Amino acid sequence: MSETELRVADDDSQLDADDRLRPEFVDAVLDAVEAGHAEEARALVEPLHPADIADLFELTPEDRRAALAAALADLLDADVFAEMNDYVREDVIDTLDARQVADIASELDTDDAVAIIEDLDADEQREVLRAMEPDDRAAIEEALSYPEESAGRLMQRELIAVPEHWTIGDTIDFLRGSEELTTDFWEVFVVDPAHRPVGTVALSWILRTPRSVAIADVMQREQTLIPVDMDQEEVALRFQKYALISAAVVDASGRLVGMITVDDVVHIIQEEAGEDTLKLAGAGDGDINEPIAVTVRTRVAWLVVNLGATMLSASVVGLFQGEIARFALLAALMPIVSALGGNAGTQTLAVVVRALATNQLTSSNTARMLFREFRVAIFNGAALGTVGALGSYVILGNAGLSTVFALSMIFNSIVAGLVGVVVPVALDKANVDPAVSSAVFVTTITDVMGFFSFLGLATLWGLGH
Amino acid sequence: MSETELRVADDDSQLDADDRLRPEFVDAVLDAVEAGHAEEARALVEPLHPADIADLFELTPEDRRAALAAALADLLDADVFAEMNDYVREDVIDTLDARQVADIASELDTDDAVAIIEDLDADEQREVLRAMEPDDRAAIEEALSYPEESAGRLMQRELIAVPEHWTIGDTIDFLRGSEELTTDFWEVFVVDPAHRPVGTVALSWILRTPRSVAIADVMQREQTLIPVDMDQEEVALRFQKYALISAAVVDASGRLVGMITVDDVVHIIQEEAGEDTLKLAGAGDGDINEPIAVTVRTRVAWLVVNLGATMLSASVVGLFQGEIARFALLAALMPIVSALGGNAGTQTLAVVVRALATNQLTSSNTARMLFREFRVAIFNGAALGTVGALGSYVILGNAGLSTVFALSMIFNSIVAGLVGVVVPVALDKANVDPAVSSAVFVTTITDVMGFFSFLGLATLWGLGH
Q1: What residues make up the domain containing B320?
Q2: Could you report the predicted ipTM of this complex, rounded to two decimals?
Q3: What is the number of H-type helices and E-type strands within chain B?
C-alpha cells in the first residue's frame, strides 16, 4: 500500500476503523499534558487532521481542556476551531485573550469566524471585534446583524463575481492575478452592473472552454438564489433538492452579498435530520457537551409536561377503581393496551414527522397518508389483538377478558394510527414544530383511549362482577 | 426583481414558500391528464426543475402515476429519475420498456444509473443491461458487483485523472480537448503509473496557477481515500468530518476506480441522520411510498416484540394482585411511575444514539457520559418526585402513598438514566445497531422497575392493608 493510503487506512495508529480517535491515544496525550511534557503531547497531536484535533478536545474531560489547550497552543489554528463543537469551543476560547481570538477569526472565512464570535458574551465580542482589522470586523458585524440560523450567518463574503461582458480568458487572468483569493470556490458568479447575479459558471466549464468565449455564453442562467434572511433549514433543503455545490446569497434588492458552499450545509443537514430524534424524545439539543444545568432544565420541563399528561390518564383509571378492586387482573392487562397504542402511535408519528421535515408530506397527499395509516392500523390491531387474545386466554383462561382485551387493542391501534397523522400535520399547519410537541399529545391520547376502552369494555361486559 | 430571481422567489406559481409543489398545481396537472389533455399537462410541467417533476410523481396517487408518466413521456429524462424516490421510480419504470430504461440509464453517471437498475428484478435487469452499450453495461455490471450501500455503488466512474509529470497547462489542454467529459467535477486526481492516487488539485487551484507549473507541485498530497467496499454511512461521516467536495475511491490494491461527490453523499447524510428517529420507533424505512404490505410487516414485528415485553411487565403487576384489589388507587398511580421512567429513558437513549451515530461518544468518554446521566437523573427524579408527591397528596391526602410514589419515581429515573446509556453502548460494542434494538430493552426495564418499585414499596409500607 502506498504512503498516502496509509494515512486513512484502518491501521492508522491514532484512529480506529470508524475514524474515531483511539482511547489509548487520547489517554497518551492527556497523560503527557498532566506530566508536564507539552513537547511530547504536541508531537503526538501534530500529525492529526484539524478535525481530529477538534475531536480530541471534545473527548477530553471539561476540567482538563484548559491544560490541553495551553500545551497545544501552537497547533490550535483556525481550522481546528472551525471543526469544534460549540460548547467545547466556548470552553477553549475562554482560555485565550481577545487578541488571540481576533487573530484566529481573521484567518477564517466569514461564516466560520461568525460561528466562533457569535457565541461570545457581548463584552468579549466587542473586545475581539475591536482587535480585528477594520475590513474583517465590518464583514463580521454585518453577518451578526442577520438573525441567528439564517443564510446571512451561514454565508461567506469571499467569492468570485465577474461582469457579464467578460470572456473566459478575462476570468482566468483575473483569477491568476488575484493573490488574495485564498479560499476554495467551485463556481464563479456572473453579475450585472447593479451586482445582481445573472448566472453561474462551474469551474469545470471555465477550464474546458476556449479563452475567447464570452462568459455570458457558457454561464448557466437558471440559478437557485438564497435570500439572506432564509432559515438555515430551508437553505439545507434547497441545497439537497437541487444538488447544489454552492449558491449565491442575495439581499432584499437582489444584490449578491455572499455565497454558501455545500460543506457548510452538510453539518446543518445532519443536525436538522438528527434533531427530530432528540425533539421527539424531549431531549432538547441533546448535545453531550452542553452544561449539565441546561440539560436538566430542558429535560425536566418535558418530564413535567408528561407527568401532567399521565396524571390525566391515571384519572381515567381512577374512574374504574371499583371494577379493578373486584377484578385486579384488569390492572395487569390495561398497561398492555395503552403501551401498544403508544408504540403504534410513535411509529406513525416518526414516519409523519420525517415526511413533513423532508417536504414529502404536503396538503396534496395528507388524505392519502391518513387512509394509508388507517389500513395499516387495522391490520396491525387485528394481528396484535389476535396474539394478545390467544396469549391471555392460554394463561388466564377467561374468554370474556380476552375478547375485551383484543377489541380494545384493535380500537387503540386505529386511534394511534389516526392521531399519529392528524396531530403532527395539524401542528405543522399551525406553524408549531411537530417534532417537539406531537409525542405528548399522541401518547396521552393513546394512553387515555387505551385505559378507557379496555376498562370501559370490561365494565360493559360485566367483568368486574 | 430580475427574471432569474423570480424563478426561485416565493411567489413562483408552482411552488409554495417551502419549495413544495402547491396542491392546486398538482391537481391541475392531474386533472389535465385525466381529461386526456396531455398537451396541457406537459405545458404546465415543462418549466419545472427535474427535482420538482420527480416530486410531482411522488405526490401523485399510485394508481394515477402510469397515466401521468404516459402524458409526460417527453419530459421524463434521466435527471428526473435520478431525483425520484426509489419506490415511486420503480412504479414509473415499470411502465417503460427495457429499451427506454436503457436509454435513460446511459445518459446518467454510473452512480445514478446503478440506483435505477439495482432496484429492478433480475430478469428486467438483464434485459436493460443487454439493451445498453457495452461500455456503459460493463461499468454498471462492475458497480453491481459491489455490496449494496457500499462506496462501489455510490461512486461514478466518470472522473479526471492525470499523471504526476504533467503541468497545469497539459491538464487544461487535456480538459479543453476532451469532448466527452460531460459530467461535473470539482477536483482533478493525480495518479502514479500504477493508477494509484497520489494527490488532488482543486479546480480553483488549477485556474489560479500559471500553465508552466508542474501539477505535482500544486497538488494536495494529503487526501482522504475511500475503500471501494466501505459502507455508505462511513463514507458520509468521512465527507462530513473532513468537509470533502469529492473523494477518490480505491480498490484493494490501491488503484483509483471511481469518485464520490458530495451531492451524492448529502442524501445519505440526511437519510442516515433521519433514520434513527424511525428506527427508535420501530418504523423501518418509514418511507411513505413503500408498499403497504411492507409497512405492515415491519411494524407488526416491532409491535409483537413490544407486546411480549409489556406482558413481562404485566406479570410483575400480576404479582401484586392482592394489594391492588385491596387498594385500587395503586393501579391508577403505577402507570405514572413507569411512564416517567420510559420518558426519561427515551431522552437519554435519544442523546446516546445520536452521539454514537456521529462518533461523539467513544470509549474515551463513556464513563463520563454515564456519570453525567446519573447526575441528571438524580436531579430530574427529585424534581418530578417532589411534584408528584405534592400533587398526589393534595388530591388523595394519603401521605404514605405520596411518599412511596416519590421514592419510586426517583429510583426509576436513575434506572432510566443508567440503562439509557448502558443498553445502546453495549449493543454498539456488540455491533448491533443501537437505534433499532435499544428502545424495547430500555422501556421494558423502566416499566418493570417502575411497577416493581412502586408496588413493592407500597407493599412494604403496608398500603394494601
Answers
A1: 292-460
A2: 0.84
A3: 23, 6
